[in-house]
Design brief:
The chain is α+β, with helices and mostly antiparallel strands. It contains three helices and six strands, in the order βββββαβαα.
Length: 138
């Protein structure tokens, strides 16, 4: 029996495929659309679903580079299971080189989030609902 596709944020990833997904976050007051970069690596063989992410605090860049190096690793080509990698969760903070969102909220303190809350609350809810809930290992 063939391995099923993996679905994340409405996108389907076939076994043995890598897919980059730009998850829409918010539109800023300048009309600039923010997206959270997500990469899914769906192995050809069954295994666990693992989430790795970095950049919850936009000015802490070590995690961002660790996720990027993991995605460039040759070992990814023989992955069993599925890897969901989010190099930068707090895109606004990363671009501005700050820990905080535009309203000075710390994204780390916004979980579990709310779809109708602040920008941080909406980002936290989106991350939880679209990504974290898909990965039992994180």
């Amino acid at each position: 029996m063939a391995r099923a596709a993996f679905t994340l944020a409405g996108k389907s990833v076939q076994p043995g495929q890598r897919l980059e997904i730009d998850l829409p976050l918010a539109r800023l007051y300048t009309h600039t659309q923010l997206h959270m970069p997500v990469e899914v690596v769906h192995g050809r063989k069954d295994g666990p679903v693992l989430l790795v992410c970095g950049g919850i605090h936009g000015d802490e860049i070590n995690g961002v580079e660790i996720v990027r190096r993991l995605l460039r690793s040759k070992a990814i080509n023989s992955l069993r299971g599925t890897l969901i990698a989010v190099p930068v969760v707090n895109v606004f903070g990363f671009l501005q080189q700050t820990r905080y969102l535009p309203d000075r909220r710390d994204l780390n303190r916004c979980f579990p989030g709310s779809e109708s809350g602040s920008l941080g609350g909406r980002i936290a809810a989106l991350l939880r609902e679209e990504i974290v809930d898909c990965a039992p290992h994180h």
